[in-house]
Amino acid sequence: MAKSNYVPLFETKQVKGRLLFRCIAASIFLGICFIVMYRVMFFPVGGKAERWTWIGLFLSELWFCFYWFLTTVSRWNSVYRLPYIQRLSQRFEKELPGIDIFVCTTDPLIEPPSMVVNTVLSVMAYDYPPEKLSIYLSDDGGSDLTFYAMLEAANFSKTWLPFCKKFRVEPTSPEAYFRTASEPLSDAVNVKDWLSVKILIDGRDSNAVDIEGNPLPTLVYLAREKRPQHHHHFKAGSMNALIRVSSRISNGPIILNVDCDMYSNNSKAIKYSLCLFMDEKKGDEIAYIQFLQSFDNLTKNEIYASSFRVLQQLELHGLDAIGGPCYNGSGCFHRREALCGKKYEKNYKVDWKKVSDTKADESASFLEETCKVLASCTFEHNTTWGKEMGLIYGFLVEDIITGLNIQCKGWKSMYLSPERDGFLGVAPITLLQTLVQHKRWMDGHLQVFLSRYCPLLYGYKKIPLKLRLAYCPYNLWAANCLATLYIVVVPCLCLLKGISLFPKISSPWVFPFAYVAFVHRAYSLNEFLWCGGTFRGWCNDQRMWLFNRTTAYFFALFETILKLLGYSQLNFVVTAKVADKEALKRYDGELIEFGATSPMFDILATLAMLNLFGTFGALKKVILDVDEDLQVLDKFGLQILLCFVFVTINLPVYQALFFRNDNGKMPSSVTYKSIIFAMLACTATMY
């Protein structure tokens, strides 16, 4: 197309509210400066305990300020992409490239075959020429259940795909669609078709089949060879095997990978991504396009804060403006060449006419034998797979490190968040599942920061400084635990000891502390509501912020240190996607699930009791010392308020410790240990 006739396939627009964000950030920075001045000017000259607690609190505040600065940098200039699929259809309808779709599963007990099949069927039903679609399932569990479920899915797709096209079904996951769809009433023929398909899903009527003769996508099942003496590299190994196998069968220039629990929720997602990849001016530099990841089982108020709505709807748009978002492991479209290690060059151009049809001509049996070799556990020996080609090995967050490695080779990435979510997954429905999942993520991120792939060093002169800094808040998530634990523990103990850590209420120095705390949280609430959340959802988000930082982040930091010292090995934990009915009922009722023994719950309960005792101690001073109650409130007002905030956040913990009778209550052993530990800490502090 001539440059004079060039019409972009997508548009880049600035996110609204940037000026307000920058003004508030500037005012918070000014408040931080005054807090630092106060800490320096009023350094205690008295006892040893006063000096050390002051220093510890000052260091914690400096860490929070530094972390706030990193997150602010990444959001300073946010953008969003607006694709035009009508232009794509007009320009490239006959030259659309082949798309290879990868779905990975591990354990049929944790990831039920029915869920895997629904995901596979959903991506088979994309609004895209079916002859250009190839779906690959990697089953690391080698399960007979999953294999035979895939055979059933292949048969059912002959009916499901025409049904989706006829009724314009969204979402295209059968289970998700029939769970939410209403039966059509206007047309008797449509009603008959609708009912016949849903019986098919129940497997009760084997004769209810309607094949229209339309072409079907290619469907490939892969169970990798495994041997005890060879590391299979978890999901990264599955992905790399699929890259090699698919290159021999369909060799689509664009690859989409989704987790087995994350089904397609937008049948036009492929065309949205191609608007970016195939744009004549800006498309050739794009390595991957990350879609927003949402979940279909969230409660109204998101009891475990699993939506990450502010991060996904605001923060990742900030990364998009400075080089591109990180690769998040699922719901991501890749350029095959970039994923296979190719470096970007300025003169790189894609001829979509040549890559629009790349499927192999050999027989299925011949390809099957060839692919067995490509998927064998010894194929990667003495190759660059897992190092320079494919996903990088040796990290719990193989997706993050792979995305960074691709960006450091000159490629860019982009972020898409269409009005209708591209993919919907399954969020954990118990607190322990959530904390374990966060621990794995934080462990992996910190591992990256402490490795040779640290973005600040590895990305030097390869990616922009802002992008290197933007990676750091995620890499340093686990490190937040130390400052958070200090803020939670020390002020309440100092309250019992009679050590003041904040300015008096009557002092003008109280205003910087009050301003920074109030404005920062008020703006956080405003963002959460603007992103579609609720006030109670925001409160739950703050609670999970505290729970994660004091437990999951702490254990992630501890395990990472052990790994560096050689006392622990890489351990990939798959989050369970199933739960018992009682736990599910409590989740739907937004009751936090504590019904298990875990060191994480020991910490949560002990910290909750510690702040409760601190608050009681403060109230005792105010009530009993009648003549000095105003002085106590004036001197310890902010400390008392801080303890009261933590007590309020921990109300569900107290309920689980003392008032609940269901199976989701805190185990008795945890209750006894938390009371004993908290009392010992308070007693030791007062003497």
From TrEMBL:
UDP-alpha-D-glucose binds at residues 111, 140. It is found in: Golgi apparatus membrane. One of its GO terms (cellular component) is Golgi membrane. It holds the Pfam family Cellulose_synt. It is a multi-pass membrane protein. GO terms for molecular function: cellulose synthase (UDP-forming) activity. Its main location: Golgi. This is Glycosyltransferase 2-like domain-containing protein.
